[in-house]
Amino acid sequence: MIIERKEYLEKLIAWKDKQLIKIVTGVRRCGKSMLLEIYRNYLKEHGIEEEQIISINFE
């Protein structure tokens, strides 16, 4: 089950065209990775190529 994090997603979308690195922090298992996955899907749906998205998982 995916919990929509509409407020946080809207904040990421608002900062989309700013040339800043977006960092999402929070306690363990609060949904950070899922939020970024939803954001990545949003970017793909709106014409951003997979090669333009950088995602690093340190686990």
Description:
The protein has 59 residues and is mainly α. It has one domain. The chain is built from two helices and no strands. The protein has helices spanning 6-14, 32-45. The chain is globular and about 30 Å long.
- Mean model confidence by pLDDT: 90
Number of separate structural domains: 1
- According to DSSP, the number of beta strands is 0
**Helical content, roughly?**
25-40%
Q: What about the largest sheet?
A: none
Overall outline: globular
What ranges have pLDDT less than 50 throughout 5 or more consecutive residues?
Answer: none
Q: What are the secondary-structure elements, in order, as H or E?
A: HH
Q: What percentage of the residues does DSSP assign to strands (E)? A: under 5%
Pfam families: AAA_14 (PF13173)
InterPro entries: AAA_14 (IPR041682), P-loop_NTPase (IPR027417)
Protein name: AAA domain-containing protein
Organism: Blautia wexlerae
Based on the model shown, name its key terms.
globular, 59 residues, AAA domain-containing protein, 0% strand, mainly alpha, AAA_14, 2 helices, P-loop_NTPase
